Amino acid sequence: MRTANVRSIVVWTLVALIGATGWSVLALSRGEDVSAAWMVAAALGTYAIAYRFYAKFIARKVLRVDGTRATPAERLDNGIDFHPTDRRVLLGHHFAAIAGAGPLVGPVLAAQMGYLPGTIWIIAGVVFAGAVQDMVVLFFSTRRDGRSLGQMAREEIGPFGGAAALIAAFAIMIILLGVLALVIVNALAASPWGTFSIGMTIPIALLMGFYLRVLRPGRIAEVSLIGVALLLLALVAGRWVAESSWAAAFTLAPSTLVVWLVAYGFVASILPVWMLLAPRDYLSTFMKIGTIALLALGVVIALPTLKMDAVTDFAKHGNGPVFAGSLFPFVFITIACGALSGFHALISSGTTPKMIQKETQVRMIGYGSMLMESSVAIMALLAASIIDPGLYFAMNAPAGVIGTTVQNASQVVGSWGYQISPGALAQAAQRVEESSLLSRTGGAPTLAVGVSEIFSKVTGGSLRAFWYHFAIMFEALFILTALDAGTRVGRFMLQDMLGNVFRPFKNVSWKPGLAITSAIVCALWGYFLWVGVHEPLGGINQLFPIFGISNQLLAAVALAVCTTLLVKSGRLKWAWITGIPLAWDATVTLTASWQKVFSSDPRVGFFKQRQVFQNAIDSGKVLPPAKTMDDMHTVVTNSTVDGVLTAVLAVLIVVVIADAARVCIRHVRRPALSTLSESPYVESKLTAPAGLFPTRTEKEEERRAAVGTAAPGD
Amino acid sequence: MRPSVLLRRAIKGVRWYVRELTDESAYDRYVTHVRKDHPDAAVPSRREFERMRTDRQEADPRQGFRCC
């Protein structure tokens, strides 16, 4: 029995106390100013405890990670995609791959229910579900030469469950792209500064691509520096453009932006990778990591005060303007990526397992990266909670609800109990040099206002508008990259599916097939984008729940695969490690799907909504927020599509879970019938520490290994 | 340790990390790999290698995919 030394007992008791104090203050203070420091303390304290104890327990006792077993990176090393990568570098790679717009947008929208429900779910969710999923998927994929989630589903559950998982993944990808594009449109509409600087990222990326292809191949660091410098120049120049006679050319209506974005998605996805995608990706990764680091620093230095209520009335009554529905299940659906994200399973299987040096590192890479992502979500929630709640609701409620004038908005938001004068609303827009901030739904503009608030506390208020547009640029940059990369992945899936019907599609470099499938994928997400922009009830309000549901359903697939694998690999008694998160996630998500399909509240249930509007059409009436009969028909069509889609997704996932349950039960009854496709054991010759800092034994091991390799020479 | 030594070591560390994280070191790594495991094979030039790398990404876009 190992005994803990006094020092570590003291240290961990202190960490626990800090976390507990943070939680107590957040939970108990009502109606008084709460510093963001407590939120930070609660988060960091909990992460540290979870990483040190729960993650270690899972790695050792449940997964039984084996440091002597060679990973695919070591066995199949080809110097390109399979190669043992230093754990600190891989942590950066993996984090940059999983962190995107999701954890920034979801928590901002969830702030409508107050900061407390969001904080609790982001932290508890990541500790018990999100980080566990990422780590377990990473572990099992590492044991299978870096198989993707879809392949594992097919091999371990069966062709039926596998096919359902594949179709679900494709549908989810389309919804994701549509919603992300909608976030961009809402952030850039009628904003010449933003539109100009985002538009400039295209020539900058082309230039970088040319530089890397022709002038100096492979010099990524220097070209990224050039790119970032040009990017900042474009950002500053955006203000000049907005103040010049060119402003009109860059002041675009939402429907114009839709056309531009879909065209961009199509063209970018058929251009060679080196031209646009690769350089864009360097740029957005650079900006992403830099801005997140700056934001963390800004939060710690400025330690702003939370202005949002801990729990708002909307949480109790489920009638919020940002998204409809009660706290359970919709707060969990809305936060999505920051706490538990199905998409991470696609990174944890596939890319990262081919680079990991040691099985013992799955805790640091899988669990650790997800804790970092969760802290990004906490920062986003924090940024949304430090701005005036009146401004928050004016920015996030659809125009159909609060109208288009500051007077009207001030009055409506005031009727919800959040007082803000028309003057204050106008001034908030003026301070970030935007014409209006009303109904800037989608989360990005709210986050940008919060970020500019935090940064200008550090740098002074004169830079506020710059920081606002900096934050918009930072989000828009990687959303545009995601549109391009996501269209390619969607196309790849579609080529594979169509290839079963018409053979040439299987050949991924067959040009006509490439163009056709790219066009189909763009048309599909473009449809949701178009609908989102023209939806009288508010695009984000209607579509974001579907996005959240689909992401959480993908997580259910990943957790079902993990649970099946735990059962089949003789870890039945530990199956609850992913089984309980699966049960929770399935309950939350299927409840949400159920309500979205069957609820009798027209704000929540799509078919009820359809019925209400259809009845009004039949009797020749126009219901607000619709203004014309055309609007009425739009609502009817959209709610039908949304309702059917939600139902289909839910059914697909039920199929996957049921199939997984069948395989598990069969394994428990007759283990001889199941097969486990794990790669055979090969002894590892590498030595590498498991955690960020090597322990004393690991240092000694490394020293011995270094001597060992030097010895044959003499 | 003298501050100048510490500083030099810190700069070296940052440079190493940036090169690894951006995958600028991919070519060097590949050359080492080819020399060690396939001594008879020809070593591609940096230009050829970088082209091969983007072509691979082109063929399977799931490589290096980013999340939401």
From TrEMBL, chain A:
Membrane topology value: Multi-pass membrane protein
Domain CstA N-terminal: 36-592
Sorted UniProt keywords: Cell membrane, Membrane, Transmembrane, Transmembrane helix, Transport
InterPro entries per UniProt: CstA, CstA_N
Family recorded in the similarity comment: Belongs to the peptide transporter carbon starvation (CstA) (TC 2.A.114) family.
Matches recorded under PANTHER family: INNER MEMBRANE PEPTIDE TRANSPORTER, PYRUVATE_PROTON SYMPORTER BTST
Chain intervals for the UniProt region annotation (Disordered): 692-714
Annotated compartments: Cell membrane
Main localization (coarse): membrane
Biased composition regions of type Basic and acidic residues, renumbered to the chain: 696-705
Entry's transmembrane regions: 9-29, 35-54, 95-114, 120-140, 160-184, 190-211, 223-242, 257-277, 289-306, 326-347, 367-387, 466-487, 508-531, 543-567, 574-594, 644-665
Source organism of this protein record: Streptomyces pseudovenezuelae
Descriptive protein name: Carbon starvation protein
From TrEMBL, chain B:
InterPro entries from the UniProt entry: Sel_put (IPR007423)
Domain of life: Bacteria
UniProt region (Disordered), positions on chain: 46-68
Pfam families (UniProt xref): Sel_put
Listed name of the protein: Uncharacterized short protein YbdD (DUF466 family)
The species this protein was found in: Streptomyces pseudovenezuelae
